[in-house]
Fold Asparaginase.
Amino acid sequence: MKKILAIHTGGTISMSQNDQGKVVPNAKNPIAQEETILAGRVQLITDEMFNLPSPHMTPVEMLKIKQRIDQAEKDGIDGVVITHGTDTLEETAYFLDLTLPNTIPVVVTGAMRSSNEVGTDGLYNFRSAIEVAADDASRGNGAMVVMNDEIHTARYVTKTHTTNVATFRTPTFGPIGIVAKDHAVYFQKLINQDTCDIDHVIDHVYLIKAYAGMDGSLFDFLDNDQTAGVVIEGLGAGNLPPQTLPAIQRLLDRQIPLVLVSRCYNGVAEDIYDYQGGGIELRKMGLMLCQGLNGQKARIKLLVGLSAGLQGDDLKQFLSTAVS
Ligand code: ASP
């Protein structure tokens, strides 16, 4: 029988609606009491690590989850399921994807409707995630997100809707599989897996979104000794308004790593345009283009790379290999 570790961290999947119709955390996580789910086929080991709404989640907790999984692997666990609030689920999932050795299946899940609401999806998603974590076909796919009968890579999945149960989508590439009645069915595979083990996380890595008419003010706020790195969600294929350039140059002069992704939902950042603030100039200035990741994922990757002590060309190489 497969031994699966269920790590509970909080989120809507652990919450309930109260008499006033407000969704609130519970002192006791209802999903963590479901220890006999798939009894006879899977032995479930439960760890209630946190009870946090996911906007309260930080890289410090993400690292603790990674270390708990490292320990479980040494203890001979066959797979791991993490229940998590959906707001920042993709960031924790991608953090685990980058920092774990990709030997056993690691599946992150959550819910859009709390435990006592009509049509609650928590228990169903939890069961699906356990099925996927216990399936031999799930090995080698990196960390995965299982919600609403779909299997997505942690690397590319993103939350796309505030309330719909079909909120998790993978732009450009699509899901890699589906959850059938009692097993996983895969129809795509990631070609390339970047992993980077870390034992601490650094702070002061920021994410800024570009907009029409943007100037350098937001970048100037980051022009200080503390700033460790900045990800910029650029316009279109990866362009910025020209008024931002002097402030961006000041950050580069301070040797602050700057990463450029696109704010578009689909596609990848590329240096196509040769006008002031176009991708060609931005790359020449020293911005690192990161292809395929959204802003929040690129921020996690930059944070992990910097926490591992990567710099210069090594950091650039690490950040540029998102696609495939
Ligand atoms: N706000 C909730 C959270 O992320 C949303 C959810 O879990 O679906 O904790």
